[in-house]
Protein 1
Amino acid sequence: MRQAGRYLPEFRELRKSHGFFEICRTPELATEITLQPIRRYSGLLDASIIFSDILVVPQAMGMVVEMHDGAGPVFPEPLAAPGDLDLKRLRDKVDVDKELGYVFDAITMTRKGLKGEVPLIGFCGAPWTLLAYMVGSSKSMPSPKQWIFKYPEESKRLLSRITIVCADFLVGQIKAGAQLLQVFDSNAGDLSPHDFATFSLPYLKEIASSVRTQLSSHSPPIPIPPMTLFAKGANHALPELVDAGYDTLGLDWVISPQAAIAATGGPSTKVALQGNIDPSILYGGRDAIEREVKRMCEGFKSGGSEGRCKGWIANLGHGITPGVDPADMQWFLECVHKYSS
Ligand code: CP3
């Protein structure tokens, strides 16, 4: 997951003739790419994640986002000052069915294409991470953090607006057939503990609670799916994240399994853990991959003095990068099966 397709030749081949957001907006193409790793690693993966991007939410709000080869995402007109929040181009109310219906269509089509082989994960970016992209960087405002320090109240207004779209978007993904949800706060680690508690955590909690309320008050009620939160770089906040309304916490690799188990309340905790091997291990050759996978599995299975964790989903601590050899990826998956069984 997480920009994972980039290392697969079959993805690159399709990308030669299609733009990134064109693929996101074309359910047949998004379905095909979602299925690629499931086919290639048949029997080795336990879930798929819909091909899309966290930046479809800023687009739905009215912003222009381009994906430049080699440079990643570009916002040609970032929000430069609080006055920009009133710009006509930034929609205040977003009808997710209208603006993001193409993601819902891709999810429904992918569910059919998966034929029950593995469940399908829907996702969105966290409000803080999305704000950081939306205010971008310009000469007058070189860091997204300047926004929260200079304009704290307007930043909170923007975060609340993004939160509503994210929650509605996740609910729509469940209605369309997604079976799990994941929220990516990839830029959480840019914030100090105090700023994370002020500008990220309340909105993460609001998303979880709004999704739960909307699904349970739907007629007929829709079962609440497992929800995962990945707050990269915010391990300092793990004790509070246990109560943020998510079932699983994704971990980056700069915390040991033992420390993560201890920080989240040991075996009697509410949350399962997901992670957390350093994705660079995939460049380390087969012996290193096997050695480190074994270490990760033992860490989560034994847990040390705190006892083992409640539940664990083996994963990388962040995304796969483009230079990874797909055969080494397969070896990684085989090692996970060997040492976690
Ligand atoms: O893994 C998958 O293919 C599933 C779909 C998915 C993508 N992006 C596709 C993608 C998911 C779950 C994401 C999440 C995403 N997107 C995050 C959160 C996870 C993380 O990595 O922290 C973030 C921050 C983004 C924003 C984004 N999209 C960036 C920074 C980039 C550029 C990456 C780079 O270094 O080039 C993207 C592009 C992107 N999103 C690609 C894919 C397959 C590669 C782009 C391409 O084909 O040109």
Note: Residues 212 and 218 are 10 Å apart (CA to CA).
Protein 2
Amino acid sequence: MSEPAPLRVLDRPGGRIEVYPDADAASRAGAARFARVIAQATAARGRAVLGLATGGTPIRLYQQLVAHHKDGELSFANVITYNLDEYYPISPLDPNSYRYYMQRNLFDHVDLAANRTHLPDGTVPEAFVDEHTAAYDRWIEADGGLDLQLLGLGRNGHIGFNEPSACSVDEALALPTRRVELHPVTVADAVKDFGGDVNRVPKAALTMGVKPILAAREVIMLAFGAHKAPAVSAAVSGPVTAGLPASLLQTVAARVVWLVDTQAASELG
Ligand code: PGA
């Protein structure tokens, strides 16, 4: 598995930042890290528990994982996955659901057992949502915690669907997996996926909390494109605040690596 070298490596309060010439190179570096974590965790504990993300950003990384699997270099036989989030309510058969995205971009193409791929369930009855999200955190703990969490960065600095809020840093760090209302920036960014009709965008989601995300033994944040540059810069070297959830990664910086392209790094100086 060829691993590209970063153009630059920066150490910032938010973690180690590796700058690559483009999203493709950064995604290949991310896939190589995935393969290492899968090998190491499987050797140490007999399984690897991976936290996964959706959106446009991780698609190339998943393509790399599928290619390595098809080449016979990478097996998911001992992998368990937990995704960050899912719209609520939504059917897994809806092409806009994150379950559908994961099946199409990764799960259908690798040797992952169906009962080892977990996403928050967009079909849970209203009355059982809190029970379901609390159980999600217990499932992760029962599997030994996340060996790796993959993240994308919202333009508003969200991680998963942990949206900007006015709560204290301590409160933000303690947030569990739960139901949330979507932030206006997140809804605006999702409109294109829902036929341009803002009324079709779900108003709520189920998201892994800040607490289980930051408990991962390793965190990979991917950010590509100039539109992510302000959020990258603020998150890695601005104040730690619940108003920019990605800045909370500064509290676990030793376990965080940012794989970014030159455009997303353009405001880092
Ligand atoms: P994107 O979304 O990968 O589609 O840019 C990232 C995010 O909002 O977390």
Note: The chain has eight helices and eleven strands.
